[in-house]
């Protein structure tokens, strides 16, 4: 495993995913920027981030659970292909990708909705 | 999974993320002329690495072949889960810049004169020769067999190419539908991807079970010697799995002839020739060196690897003992085991490091331990990630994956991971 350094992993991912790799990177950066903007908005309005965070984590968790059992289908295997705990662990790791997208989206929506409410009250 | 195993796995994963190459790759300013015979997995990977490590060298790749096949994927095409297009690429897309590609076959090796001659009559002189021609599938050695028969009359063979692997998938499906006796097996002698005959056996069994037709098909695996696999723990595991899945095994059965019309196969055995009826047969051809290698002084002159023309090579360095400026890499190398893309991945850096060291005036020290890998697909969605060395020791790359356990994560590596790793290898980046 010592052979798998960061450079090697980058090239393997790049050769596996092609242009999709950069699509994911751009999506991740956009989501990150939106999350930061959401946090800053919440802080500006003095609104606690707890509600948005809990909703995001909840949505992310549900997404992870659902996608953990969908990941094997993506590999052309059946939904019941997860035969051992290590299989479930890796499927869950892959499911963290949609988890991240859904969780981030929920957080952003909640944060900006909260901002709109504060603005409406003011 | 035990807690300890989980922790080891987590630590290993962390090390992947944190591991950064400690040293820059060594380079050489040598202006050596390097000729690479063959543009397959080994040839392209060599060209890519040498181009970066020896920027002033003249590197010439000689191969007439324009298509490049991801051969580890042939099993998945044969299983009917991949299309031929998924394993077919173009050599030109992987040929590194600054390397001259001569689109002709090598017709003659003349190591005494340090030169090779192409089929078009061009002679190329070299300071170093990398022989990476691959091997020849010798279907003609089986009486009555011809590549054109694949996909017809119950005959399958995933080795011949993507289209033949696809035709084999259809043949397997028809066999499962109609039922009967299916014969599988492997040839005597060295062969590429020795796990593939077992994989296609498991896949046929699995597909029949999924369709509720297992009771209608009888599967018989004809092993060429008293074992189904050369690595003892793997042999024991596969033998046990075959027994559990009602797959019969005939030992010391070597396919020598088929009669497609009569659907009969004749095997050489310890007690003489034995003829078996079949409704389906998966033919794995004997394999040997290409004609140009066979006709040259490069092959072993005696011993077990001489008859099929495998190139004489030191198993630790892949250097030719009689022609020290000649190296054999990939399928053509006359070393134990090692005819897989995974072997190439580990052989190429050793050869390149040693040439770079030698031309830079340092002592070559890189050593190849015989690493090879066989992601043993045991059904659609499960596999065993088997890796071993020259001595038959299991040497798993991932401590959290049990090599003798059927796992989805091993299938994940086969189905989603290997192609990207293979392409990165062709570019000299993995």
What is the terminal-to-terminal distance of chain B? 30 Å
What's the overall average pLDDT of chain A, rounded? 92
The helical percent of chain B reads 25-40%
- Taking pLDDT < 50 over at least 5 consecutive residues as the criterion, the unreliable ranges of chain B are 1-24
Percent helix range of chain A: over 70%
The number of helical segments of chain B is 9
- Count helical runs of chain A: 4
Structural class of chain B, by secondary structure, is: alpha/beta
**Major interchain interface with per-chain residue totals:** A-B, 31 and 37 residues
Low-confidence stretches of chain A: none
Kindly report how far apart the N and C termini of chain A lie: 58 Å
Mean pLDDT of chain B: 94
Order of helices and strands of chain A: HHHH
| Beta fraction of chain B | 15-25%
Radius of gyration of chain A over alpha carbons? 18 Å
Percentage of β-strand residues of chain A: under 5%
Structural class of chain A: mainly alpha
Largest sheet descriptor of chain B: 5 strands, parallel
What is the radius of gyration of chain B?
22 Å
């Amino acid at each position: 495993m010592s052979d798998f350094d960061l450079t090697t992993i980058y090239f393997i991912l790049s050769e596996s995913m092609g242009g999709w790799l950069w699509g994911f990177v751009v999506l991740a950066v956009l989501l990150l920027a939106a999350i930061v903007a959401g946090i800053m908005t919440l802080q500006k309005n003095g609104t606690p981030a707890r509600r948005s965070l809990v909703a995001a984590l909840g949505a992310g968790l549900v997404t992870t659970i659902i996608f953990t059992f969908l990941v094997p289908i993506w590999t052309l295997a059946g939904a019941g292909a997860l035969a051992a705990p290590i299989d479930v662990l890796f499927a869950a790791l892959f499911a963290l990708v949609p988890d991240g997208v859904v969780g981030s989206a929920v957080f952003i929506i909640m944060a900006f909705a909260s901002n709109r409410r504060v603005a409406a009250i003011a | 999974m035990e807690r300890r195993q989980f922790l080891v796995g987590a630590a290993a994963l962390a090390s992947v993320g944190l591991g950064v190459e400690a040293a820059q790759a060594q380079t050489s300013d040598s202006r050596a002329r390097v000729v690479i015979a063959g543009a397959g997995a080994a040839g392209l990977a060599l060209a890519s690495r040498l181009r970066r490590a020896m920027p002033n060298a003249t590197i010439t790749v000689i191969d007439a072949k324009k298509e490049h096949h991801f051969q580890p994927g042939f099993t998945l095409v044969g299983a009917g889960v991949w299309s031929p297009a998924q394993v077919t690429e173009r050599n030109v897309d992987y040929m590194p810049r600054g390397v001259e590609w001569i689109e002709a076959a090598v017709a003659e090796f003349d190591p005494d004169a340090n030169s090779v001659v192409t089929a078009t009559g061009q002679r190329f002189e070299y300071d170093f020769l990398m022989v990476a021609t691959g091997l020849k599938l010798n279907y003609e050695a089986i009486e009555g067999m011809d590549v054109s028969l694949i996909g017809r009359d119950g005959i399958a063979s995933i080795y011949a190419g993507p289209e033949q692997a696809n035709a084999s998938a259809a043949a397997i499906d028809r066999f499962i539908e109609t039922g009967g006796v299916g014969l599988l097996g492997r040839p005597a002698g060295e062969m590429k991807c020795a796990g593939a005959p077992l994989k296609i056996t498991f896949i046929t069994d699995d597909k029949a079970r999924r369709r509720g037709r297992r009771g209608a098909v009888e599967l018989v695996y004809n092993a060429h010697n008293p074992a189904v696999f050369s690595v003892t723990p793997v042999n024991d595991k596969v033998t046990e799995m075959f027994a559990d899945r009602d797959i019969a095994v005939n030992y010391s059965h070597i396919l020598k002839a088929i009669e497609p019309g009569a659907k009969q196969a004749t095997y050489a055995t310890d007690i003489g020739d034995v003829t078996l009826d079949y409704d389906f047969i998966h033919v794995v051809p004997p394999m040997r060196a290409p004609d140009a290698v066979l006709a040259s002084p490069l092959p072993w002159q005696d011993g077990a690897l001489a008859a099929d023309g495998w190139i004489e090579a030191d198993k630790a360095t892949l250097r030719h003992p009689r022609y020290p400026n000649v190296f054999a890499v990939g399928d053509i190398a006359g070393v134990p085991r090692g005819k897989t893309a995974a072997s190439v991945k580990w052989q190429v850096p050793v050869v390149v490091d040693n040439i770079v060291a030698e031309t830079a005036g340092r002592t070559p020290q890189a050593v190849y331990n015989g690493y090879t890998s066989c992601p043993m697909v045991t059904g659609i969605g499960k596999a065993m990630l088997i890796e071993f060395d020259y001595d038959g020791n299991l040497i798993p790359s991932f401590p959290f994956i049990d090599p003798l356990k059927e796992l989805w994560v091993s299938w994940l590596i086969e189905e989603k991971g290997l192609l990207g790793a293979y392409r990165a290898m062709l570019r000299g980046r993995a």
